[in-house]
Fold this sequence. Notes:
The chain is of the alpha/beta class. The protein has helices at residues 11-22, 63-76, 93-119, 124-143, 160-178, 183-194, 203-218, 244-258, 275-286, 299-304, 324-335, 355-368, 385-394, 416-423; strands at 2-8, 27-34, 47-54, 232-237, 263-267, 290-292, 311-315, 343-350, 372-376, 398-402, 411-413.
Amino acid sequence: MTIKKFQGKSKEEAVEKAKAELGEDAVVMNVKEIAPKGFFKAFKKSSFEVTAAVEEKENKVDAGMAFKNMQKMHETINMAADEPIQIPPAADSAAVLEQNKAEQSAIEFLKRNASLLKKEDGADQRIEEKLENLQSILEKQLAVGKKKDPEEKEPPKPDPKKNENLSFIKVLYETLIANEVNEKYVNQVMDELEKVNWKGNSVDYILSNVYQKMILKFGQPKGIDLVGKKPKIVFFVGPTGVGKTTTLAKIASKLKVEQGKKVAFLTADTYRIAAAEQLRTYANILDTPLVIIYSAEELNQGVEQLEDYDVILVDTAGFSHKNQSQKEDIKNLIQSVDLRYDSEVYLVLSATTKYKDLMEIADVYKEISEYKIIFTKLDETTTYGNILNIKLYSEAEVSYITNGQNVPDDIELFHSQKMVKRLLGGS
């Protein structure tokens, strides 16, 4: 018999993992809810651990071996309770029952009002008032059914500053979640905040601490660095429809007009109809040369024609991250660069893409090459959490963002401070 433990966000997910690995014949032996830890555990969700077993198929059954396996199984299974078991005295059973009812009522109240906190359109002060009121109701309901011991000392009065800070932390949490920052990374922020003496400090101190830590998570990005050998070859890769060609033209204009660099275009996008013509239009406007290649073998020949230029911006064909053959074409193109040239890769992503898809795209392109990230279409979304999500997931630098179709205006170097302000509810 094979016995294993599996974890998931829900019981169903954990059971599904068990059956995926052990097969449909797997038997669930125990389900354990793992409560979140830390002071801010109220903001986090429980996970579940399932212990599952499957009987190994054998042609013959050996009674002696079965007995040994049974003994081994008993030695393997931890018979201790997952949580400490406490049996209350009979005299207090009614009070305990009332307390449990109060706790359940408080939890249901929180569930009913959680959506209101997210959807409320108004000043932060009104949100804080709702949270403070919610906390006082919770405390009152939890006190129902408890018998007061005559010898019990009067509980200390709540610290107004602590309550104000806790309410503010709840607002921060809800703001990040509403901005679609992944819960995993929001919990990281909360865990880091636990290490700070937030109870005895001001709201400004807490906000400043979170603000600085999130800026550190983004880091200080840099644009295209043209120091070193010439020409520098810069590849723009990414899925279809994210705006690679337009982004390339915006960066070319910035480099030529603002920095006075000699810029050239090279395109390997021969899949998309009129792709080369779109880039030729930009080349004519900027008065820069354009070379078209049809295979990886032609790349270095094309680069040799442009050796007098500071930078060569290479447009590539967009493809689905599930298309293996096109993935290999892009990989061969990037790896075919002659070693005498410096090169770097920029993965262009849309800020409107779902986080799950972004993770898959980031993984696929990581197999092709190391890259920096450009996020486009920030003007088409109201939430920016995916920029932080994919930065932390891929560990790649976010270098540029675009917020419109205008060339060359609607592009800028990624600004960590500005983005953190947006994520925290600022403008």
